[in-house]
Task: structure prediction
Amino acid sequence: MSLKEVRAKIQGIDSRLVGLIAERTNLAKDVLDAKRAEGKSINDDDQVRIVLDRACSLATEKNLDTETVKRIFELLIQMSIERQHELSGEGNLP
Result:
């Protein structure tokens, strides 16, 4: 496979990754609604730990560096939390 072909494959993966990040972030509205219905606050440290532990376990299964995967998921979680704050009127972005 040529470098150009490999890079085209990577570009396709990158596109899917961004789409999945958008899909995950768009669930913030549903998460916020469910938290409100259950009387929970936006910040949920227990759930953060669950998500990070799950991500690290999956990373281990795939032979990926767990610390790097953990950092990626910390960013994804932060994006969701920020979006939930925005949707609740506490943020400063549309």
